[in-house]
């Protein structure tokens, strides 16, 4: 009964938000129809609650209450602030594509195409009435209320095409900047990678000091062809009272390597859900995720891996360092399809609890329909080892520095998975910023 | 002249049990003291309390280091002031390379003393030089601290740190445990190379064997939480003959 009531209330409020936003959302005709459909799909459930199994540990109706009103398009002042912040990212030489409060900022971005790389703003593509398939940009194969909400409201994002055999020298780098308080930004990016291509994709989420209690809703849809290699690094440093609800939907071809790393230090409430399908034979997937959380931060890392082709390998590594009353969630699901013989899938979650009140929920799920597979999962939870701490202190390290060194060691394995030196340094610096702010 | 280390009537408890019942000893710069005694006599407790290991309650007495109250200092402050404990069982720290650990520790100590950080090339040169003298291959230093090290390698790693940090007081807790004679000789040579007029060493050992390699100026026999006899290096040989039994009776 309460469910129905809550749904109606949230739905009604959101109806107003959607109606108010509609005029600003790019795309008419089929695009607008797709948005309406997506909104209706979302409105049927509203913000997910703990009663939806996939969202059991991240009850957004409780954690978010509402979807915030759509962020206004950035003005000159917001763009100037964003520009300043982007300069300090220190990510080395990347091709930056900057999105400010949900709107692509051409002036801060490098839209250079060439060498097999084509880059467009999503809004322009949605508005392109000559494209018969423009509404597909908002569709996805995963049914999930937050993905539907994202499709309904998406204002902008990037559409990146990488041709066969391309190997761009610079990583492509999508930077999300939030500058305003108490608003929501909805972004969606699509990355289509051909065969025999080698690509590095970076995503950063950052906020200026004026951005408080905002919401970032993001979706990234990636297709990787055969014999390709995608190195993906995501660093989320949103404001500590912000929400970041993000989805990645990835389809991996044959004989392809996909290595994805994510670091979450920001966000009061965050969820990063990845749906990865290994659709071609002999591919390798490696996921490395790190949560560094404190205060009352809630972070959720959810992976659904579909082994849909034979002889693929998947390795999932999750590390959480939790202080104060932080709460981390790791859900890892591996579905091995009947055809996917010789699957080798493993996941491992390790949590380091720095306080008595920190909390982690681990939910591994294996569903196996093939008979010749190796699958496994494991989880450990522990505190910092006192004997190691004393050893370091007896060698001159003050308490916080000794803790920091042990925490670095704990997350080191995941950080080391980043192949690109500059990007590894970026992740290490973000982790160091977190450690220094503890002191 | 102020003594380097003065332990006065030290009384220490662990939980409800008193381990040290009024221990007194004075160590001056340049001296090597050996503390011998049977298991459970309080030797390791003394070394832990000097280094500042948590879990020990000092219920009486004091420890002065260069005239300052050591018990008021955090373990890292003691290290920066020049106290070094070579652990009986050095811990393994996976994920922290020995090199990174050494540099972090040296710089933390220098920072605490208001000195500038070591420049990387200078530091590397110093480590290379010391490691070579201790027969420690450089690729061992790229591995996690003590991870996969043999007993002898772990002890050599302790001596390496001693040589880098240049402490004024070195406490060697059962350095000979788990070492064969060759490994012991290498470690002892490393320690002997560090003997100097302004540095003191306190060598804690159960057996006289170690003292053939690190020859002490003074020998103290501990039993049941007290020093029951002190003497010159000949006392160690005497003990080798007669055993600890007579002192256990004496302390009772």
Automatic annotation (TrEMBL), chain B:
The keyword Repressor does not apply. Signal peptide: none annotated. One of its GO terms (molecular function) is ATP hydrolysis activity. SUPFAM superfamilies: P-loop containing nucleoside triphosphate hydrolases (SSF52540). It comes from the Bacteria. Gene3D superfamilies: P-loop containing nucleotide triphosphate hydrolases (3.40.50.300). Keywords: ATP-binding, Nucleotide-binding. InterPro entries: AAA+_ATPase, ABC_transporter-like_ATP-bd, ABC_transporter-like_CS, FeS-cluster_ATPase_SufC, P-loop_NTPase. Involved in beta-(1-->2)glucan export. Transmembrane domains (TMD) form a pore in the inner membrane and the ATP-binding domain (NBD) is responsible for energy generation. Belongs to the ABC transporter superfamily. Ycf16 family. NCBIfam families: sufC. This is Fe-S cluster assembly ATPase SufC. It comes from Tardiphaga robiniae.
């Amino acid at each position: 009964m309460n469910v129905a009531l809550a749904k109606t209330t949230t739905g009604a409020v959101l109806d107003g938000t959607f109606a108010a936003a509609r005029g600003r959302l790019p795309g008419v005709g089929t695009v607008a129809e797709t948005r309406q459909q997506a909104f209706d799909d979302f409105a049927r459930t509203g913000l997910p609650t703990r009663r939806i199994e996939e969202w059991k540990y991240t009850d957004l109706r409780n954690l978010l209450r509402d979807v915030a009103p759509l962020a206004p398009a950035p003005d000159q002042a917001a763009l100037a602030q964003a520009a300043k912040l982007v300069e300090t990212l220190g990510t080395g030489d990347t091709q930056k594509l900057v999105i400010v409060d949900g709107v692509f900022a051409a002036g801060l971005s490098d839209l250079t195409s060439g060498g097999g790389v084509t880059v467009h703003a999503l809004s322009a593509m949605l508005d392109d009435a000559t494209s018969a398939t423009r509404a597909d940009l908002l569709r996805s194969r995963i049914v999930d209320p937050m993905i539907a909400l994202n499709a309904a409201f998406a204002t902008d994002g990037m559409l990146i095409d990488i041709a066969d055999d391309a190997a761009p020298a610079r990583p492509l780098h999508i930077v999300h900047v939030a500058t305003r308080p108490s608003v929501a930004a909805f972004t969606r990016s699509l990355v289509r990678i051909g065969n025999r291509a080698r690509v590095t994709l970076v995503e950063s989420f950052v906020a200026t000091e004026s951005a408080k209690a905002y919401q970032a809703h993001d979706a990234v849809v990636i297709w990787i062809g055969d014999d390709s290699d995608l190195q993906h690094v995501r660093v989320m440093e949103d404001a500590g009272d912000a929400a970041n609800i993000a989805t990645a939907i990835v389809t991996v071809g044959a004989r392809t390597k996909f290595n994805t790393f994510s670091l979450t230090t920001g966000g009061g409430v965050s969820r990063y859900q990845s749906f990865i399908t290994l659709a071609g034979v002999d591919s390798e997937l490696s996921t490395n995720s790190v949560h560094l959380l404190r205060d009352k931060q809630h972070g959720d890392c959810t992976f659904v891996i579909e082994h849909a082709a034979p002889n693929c390998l998947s390795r999932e590594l999750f590390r959480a360092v939790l202080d104060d009353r932080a709460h981390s969630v790791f859900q890892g699901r591996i579905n091995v399809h009947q055809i996917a013989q010789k699957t080798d899938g493993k996941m491992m979650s390790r949590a380091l609890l720095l306080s008595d009140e920190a909390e982690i929920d681990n939910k591994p799920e294996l569903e196996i329909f093939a008979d010749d597979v190796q699958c496994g999962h494991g989880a450990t939870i522990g505190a910092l080892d006192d004997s190691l701490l004393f050893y370091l202190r007896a060698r001159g390290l003050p308490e916080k520095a000794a803790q920091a060194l042990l925490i670095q060691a704990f997350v080191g394995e995941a950080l080391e998975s980043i192949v690109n030196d500059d990007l590894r340094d970026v992740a290490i610096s973000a982790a160091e910023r977190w450690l220094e702010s503890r002191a | 002249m102020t003594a380097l280390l003065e332990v006065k009537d030290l009384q220490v408890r662990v939980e409800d049990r008193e381990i040290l019942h009024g221990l007194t000893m004075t160590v001056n710069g340049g001296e090597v003291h050996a503390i011998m005694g049977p298991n459970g006599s309080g030797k390791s407790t003394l070394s832990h309390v000097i280094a500042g290991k948590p879990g020990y309650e000092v219920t009486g007495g004091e420890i002065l280091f260069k005239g300052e109250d050591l018990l008021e200092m955090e373990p890292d402050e003691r290290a920066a002031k020049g106290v070094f404990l070579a652990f009986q069982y050095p811990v393994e720290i996976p994920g922290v390379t020995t090199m990174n650990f050494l540099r972090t520790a040296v710089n933390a100590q220098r920072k605490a003393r208001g000195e500038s950080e070591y420049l990387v090339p200078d530091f590397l040169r110093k480590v290379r030089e010391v490691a070579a003298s201790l027969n420690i291959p450089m690729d061992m230093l790229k591995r996690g601290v003590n991870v996969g090290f043999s007993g002898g390698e772990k002890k050599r790693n302790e001596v390496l740190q001693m040589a880098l940090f240049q402490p004024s007081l070195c406490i060697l807790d059962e350095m000979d445990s788990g070492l064969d004679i060759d490994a012991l000789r290498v470690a002892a040579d490393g320690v002997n190379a560090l003997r100097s007029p302004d540095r003191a060493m306190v060598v804690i050992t159960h057996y006289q064997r170690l003292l053939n390699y690190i020859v002490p100026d003074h020998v103290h026999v501990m039993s049941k939480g007290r020093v029951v006899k002190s003497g010159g290096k000949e006392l160690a040989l005497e003990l080798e003959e007669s055993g600890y039994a007579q002192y256990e009776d004496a302390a009772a």
